[in-house]
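User: Quick one: structure for sequence A, then sequence B.

Assistant: Sequence A:
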Amino acid sequence: MQKGAVEALPKLTKRSPTVEAARRATGNGGFGSFDRVLRTAPSSFPAGYRRVAAVFEVRCPDLIPGDRWQLAVDDGQRFLARWGRQAYDLGWTPSDLFGLHKPPAQAHPSYRRLSRYDETGLVSLLQGRKVVALTETTATIQNPAGAITIYRRHHKPAFGPVGDSLDDLAPPFGGNDV
C-alpha cells in the first residue's frame, strides 16, 4: 500500500436472520403486521423492548442510510442481549434506545436524520461500539481506540447558537442563584 493511501472499508451486506425471517413472513418484503414481526424478536429481550426492536429490524426508517440502519439493528440486538434487563430496570424507554428525529415534511437534500443527536436513541449512535457500563442516566461507550464516550439519556442539547436554549441562560455550575 502506498504511503497515505487509505483502504476502502467493506460495505455491510449481511442481514440479520430476524430481518430475513420478517421479510419472508410478509411475503412481499414489507411490513405485514405487528404480530408476525413480534415472533421474530428474541424472547430473551425484555417485553417492554421486544416489539419496538422487532419493528425497528423489519424496515430501514426513512432518510437513514441502509448500512447505518443494518449496523443499528446489529447494535440493538447486541445491546438488548447484554444490557436489556438492566436498561429496563433503570427506566430506559424504547425511545431512549431506538428513538429517531421525526423528519420534516419537506426535508432539505442535506438533511441527515441521525445528525439530530438530541433526538436520537442510544442504539443508532453506537455504530459498532460496545456499551461497557449503564446507569439510570448514562451509557458508557468504549471506542475502538480505547477512548470512552458518555451518552446522556436526558439533557442532550441540540447543536445551535448560544441563546437558543433556556439552559444557556442558567448560571454556571456552582454559581449563585438569582
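Sequence B:
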Amino acid sequence: MIGLSFGHLTEVQMNLIQTHYAAANGTYDIFFLSPEIWGDYQNPPVPLLSDIAWRYAGPPVIEDVSFDRFTVEVELISYAINLGDLVFDAADAAATPARDYTLDAGGAAATPARDYLIFPPGAA
C-alpha cells in the first residue's frame, strides 16, 4: 500500500481526484498510474510503465486548508500483473490470445471473457 498526499490544490484539482475515484468505482476497479503522479521523484517507488495496477484503499481524504486550497490524501493498494496477460491501447484487440487485463479497450472483443476491461467504452 502506498499513501500519496497532494498539497495546496485548487478546487478544480481536488475535483479531478474525486472524479477519478468515482470513475474507478471507488475501491472496486483497478487503474494504472501515469508518470506524472510521481512528480519530481528522481527514482519513483515503482517502474513508470510497469506491471503494477492500483486500486483505492478508501475514499480520498480532503482537508480545506485555506481559501480555495485543499490537501488531498489517498491510499492505494498495488497489484502485480503478469505483463503477458496485459494489453495496452487495445482499441481493436483481437479475441485471441486471451488476456486477463485490457487497457484502453475501446472496441475490443468481449470474447473470450476478460477479467478486466479498463476504459471499455464501446467494447463488444
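Residues 83-124 form one domain. The CA atoms of residues 88 and 103 lie 5 Å apart.

User: Thanks, that's what I needed.
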